[in-house]
Amino acid sequence: MRKRTTIGxxxxxxxxxxxxxxxxxxxxxxxxxxxxFGQPDLQGTWTNASLTSLQRPxxxxxxxxxxxEAVALEKRRAAARANQDKPTDPKLGAPPVANDPGGYxxxxxxxxxxxxxxxxxxxxxWIVDPADGRLPYSTAGHQAYVDAxxxxxxxxxxxxxxxxxxxxxxxxxxxxxxxxxxxxYNNNYQIVQSKxxxxxxxxxxxxxxxxxxxxxxxxxxxxxxxxxxxxGWWEGDTLVVETTNFNPGESLRPYFDNSxxxxxxxxxxxxxxxxxxxxxxxxxxxxDPATYSQVWKAxxxxxxxxxxxxxxxxxxxxxxxxxxxxxxxxxxKEGRKIEAVDVSGR
Length: 346
What we know:
Strand content: 15-25%
Radius of gyration: 21 Å
Structural class: alpha+beta
Number of domains: 1
Strand order of the largest sheet: 1-6-7-8-9-10-13-14-15
Number of helices: 3
Shape: globular
Helix content: 10-25%
Order of helices and strands: EEHEEEHEEEEEEEEEEH
């Protein structure tokens, strides 16, 4: 359960992030306002909630859709969500299902209601390179991904083997990043700047990432904090952030078509450019030869969000992990096999 309390709190793009042919860069006439330190001001509350996912679904063959195609798809998704939001309690009219105690409907989820739009164009995936919008796993990388997913789905001996989201250590998927990806709900971020650092507060699990602006030196290889080690610098109006030294425990980040695997020695380079009063263009590339056959690149909009970011207290009243482990032990005693939900996106 969540305890909610209020938390107080330009486009200079390098060649590696040059737009692909056929999609225009944001208008260069806008320049972000400056904060008291003379830096481009990225501060505020932002959201990446969207029906667009990291990888391009097979139903789409191109990076962009027309507005008419997008509106039709958004209407279908809205209708499906309304159906998922029907009562699940038989006392409220839901049809009873044998041996099913019932569960949540979709009222508590908040994945977004529209596809992502960058420079007015509707996106079918965040990935822009490779051109097919799919993660370019190497043979070894894909096997490592499958093995990690299998372990996450079938390891019930103790809490240490369960995914980080279940253990309330980091948000599920890659919501905290880097790279920061949209998930099922709580897709809000608050950015706060000082002269020497940028703080990114992530609503999901209340994760907080600090980006140092004082130097570009990463710690020794044996220092591997959650969310890696992030250093940043300014290139014109763009904040560039380089993250290395990832913790091995967060290599698998499963969430449907936003699932990714990063080896501990991956390098993620992010670029934050405020392109309008209400949008930050968030671009990133992942360099991980141990997992992927090439460097892959993506971009997404982070849109201004109303209101504050609230505390996400995952640990408070959370019965999920004891229930999961107790259920597995009961199934073992009864000789039953646990059927886990496939969140691989494959």
